[in-house]
Design a protein that fits this description.
The protein is mainly α. It has eight helices and two strands; from the N terminus they run ααααββαααα. Helix content is 72%, strand content 3%.
């Protein structure tokens, strides 16, 4: 029993019936704790430390790594106590938790895991939706660009044909003047040909513009939802 221990220790009783540390192997869980510390994720370090605190462990190196995890999470000097079969803080006071305290701790951690799972699932769904919106926006731009490119090609062809006709007429009257005068070419390139009819394509262009604007607004709103969920995830991990 912990109450019979003479040296000052602090026991963190934190296990759940569906404890990931037991399900996937506490060695992997300890490695995840050290990796989370390297990544600066304090909330994840504390969560994992709470899971491995009272697990029976084998292997000196495993116990050393577990002690590092506990130190990263709570500070102080931690060791594995064979009598208690748990990690203990050398410098803390002995505290024995009741069955009710342990059950409450288990319940709170499970609620926290469930909340994080729900938030991450919602975030994943929104990110997938964001990816679909980006694809739709690209498709709208591509279709609009096809119309613009087609009209430009038509315009250039009209300029080329009309310039060729005019310059051909001028050439017959004044060969030298036609060869050195680029006015007809420049005029049609800048202003477009009078016969170029863009009215039939304006409704389609307007529709593409409206759809692009709608998708951009939708994208902003979805990104806001993703950011809000990420803030709630970060807040939940810290608590």
């Amino acid at each position: 029993m912990l109450k019979n221990l003479l040296k000052p220790i602090f026991i963190a009783f934190v296990l759940t019936l569906s404890n990931p540390a037991l399900a996937s192997g506490y060695k992997d869980t300890i490695e995840q704790c050290l990796a989370a510390h390297q990544a600066g994720d304090k909330g994840e370090v504390k969560l994992i430390a709470s899971e491995i605190a009272s697990i029976k462990m084998y292997g000196d190196q495993t116990r050393i790594d577990a002690a590092k995890c506990m130190t990263h999470a709570y500070g102080g000097e931690w060791v594995y106590d064979h009598s208690a079969k748990a990690m203990v803080n050398k410098n803390a006071v002995v505290i024995e938790l009741s069955d009710e305290d342990i059950a409450n701790a288990k319940s709170e951690r499970q609620k926290k895991r469930d909340k994080l799972y729900q938030l991450r699932n919602e975030q994943r769904i929104l990110k997938n939706r964001m990816a679909r919106i980006n694809i739709d926006i690209d498709e709208q731009y591509n279709e609009k660009n096809k119309i613009d490119e087609r009209l430009q090609n038509i315009n250039l062809m009209l300029i080329l044909k009309e310039t060729h006709t005019s310059c051909s007429d001028l050439y017959l009257k004044n060969k030298e003047a036609a060869i050195i005068n680029p006015t007809c070419v420049e005029a049609f390139k800048k202003l477009g040909h009078p016969l170029l009819d863009t009215y039939k394509d304006e409704p389609a262009i307007d529709q593409f513009d409206k759809e692009i604007k709608r998708l951009i607004v939708l994208k902003v709103n979805v990104q806001k939802q993703i950011d809000d969920i990420q803030e709630e995830i970060n807040s939940t991990k810290k608590n």
